[in-house]
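Students often ask why inverse folding is considered easier than folding. One informal answer: many sequences map to the same fold, so there is more than one right answer. In these notes we will look at a single instance of the problem. The structure comes first.
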């Protein structure tokens, strides 16, 4: 292969890449999930607070701690467990 053919091959490859680089980013075309940064922060804080509340309820529930220490469970125990998660 001579030098001019090699340079033409590089030019062809570079020209193929240009249209892809000029296309707008597909993520810009997608609608925003949140209306604003403030809304995003507010919603995330709300969900985190909800998670913290649920975690605290589970960790400080004496019935649940008693169930977890039991070696054998029956139907009533399973119903208690599911009711505590609701």
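Output (designed amino acids):
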């Amino acid at each position: 292969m001579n030098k001019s053919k090699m340079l033409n091959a590089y030019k062809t490859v570079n020209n193929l890449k240009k249209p892809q680089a000029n296309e707008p980013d597909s993520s810009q075309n997608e609608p925003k999930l949140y209306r604003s940064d403030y809304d995003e922060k507010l919603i995330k804080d709300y969900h985190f607070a909800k998670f913290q509340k649920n975690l605290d309820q589970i960790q400080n529930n004496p019935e649940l701690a008693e169930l977890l220490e039991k070696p054998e469970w029956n139907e009533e125990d399973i119903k208690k467990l599911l009711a505590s998660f609701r």
